[in-house]
From TrEMBL:
<feature type="domain" description="BMERB">
    <location>
        <begin position="13"/>
        <end position="154"/>
    </location>
</feature>
<protein>
    <submittedName>
        <fullName>MICA1 monooxygenase</fullName>
    </submittedName>
</protein>
<keyword id="KW-0503">Monooxygenase</keyword>
<keyword id="KW-0175">Coiled coil</keyword>
<dbReference type="GO" id="GO:0004497">
    <property type="term" value="F:monooxygenase activity"/>
</dbReference>
<keyword id="KW-0560">Oxidoreductase</keyword>
<dbReference type="InterPro" id="IPR022735">
    <property type="entry name" value="bMERB_dom"/>
</dbReference>
<keyword id="KW-0472">Membrane</keyword>
<dbReference type="Pfam" id="PF12130">
    <property type="entry name" value="bMERB_dom"/>
</dbReference>
<dbReference type="InterPro" id="IPR050540">
    <property type="entry name" value="F-actin_Monoox_Mical"/>
</dbReference>
<feature type="coiled-coil region">
    <location>
        <begin position="23"/>
        <end position="50"/>
    </location>
</feature>
């Protein structure tokens, strides 16, 4: 087993492990965001009730409640933006994994001797190549979306 094949195999395992760790981190953060959303929702409900039942409440207190409510809305919007970024990252990881698998299959067919390939092998190779191009295009679209979002936030 040549050294370069062992190196490629090791690097592939490392890349797969990195994707797995990223996916776990993203999942954990999404769960944290969900919990925070619920907490913000509860705080918002309390503030809305206070604002509706404002009989005899000083104007300063009402203003303070409104400011708190606006802060909660702002915080919720920033969490929604982060959640959107994380969902894009999840899609990107899935596409990266899919690309790796297709690349692995394509290498199998490309390493075959041309004279030994059957018409089915050639068709499978072309199909895998088409799928690989599709996955790369999808990843490109995600990167474009992230770039547009980043520019719009500036």
């Amino acid at each position: 087993y040549p050294t370069w094949k062992r190196t490629l195999t090791r690097r592939a395992r490392e890349a797969q492990m990195n994707r797995f760790c990223k996916a776990q981190t993203i999942q954990r953060r999404l769960e944290e965001i969900e919990v925070t959303f619920r907490e913000l929702e509860q705080q918002g409900i309390k503030l809305e009730k206070l604002l509706r039942d404002e009989d005899g409440t000083p104007t300063d207190q009402k203003t303070q409640w409104m400011n708190q409510l606006l802060y909660l809305v702002q915080k919720k919007n920033s969490l929604m933006s982060e959640e959107s970024d994380l969902m894009i990252a999840v899609q990107e990881l899935k596409l990266e994994e899919q690309q790796w698998q297709l690349d692995h299959k394509l290498r199998y067919y490309m390493n075959m001797e041309e004279s030994l390939k059957t018409p089915e092998d050639c068709a499978a190779e072309q199909e895998i190549l088409a799928q690989l191009v599709e996955v790369v295009n999808k990843r490109n679209v995600l990167i474009h979306i992230q770039e547009e979002k980043r520019l719009s936030e500036l």
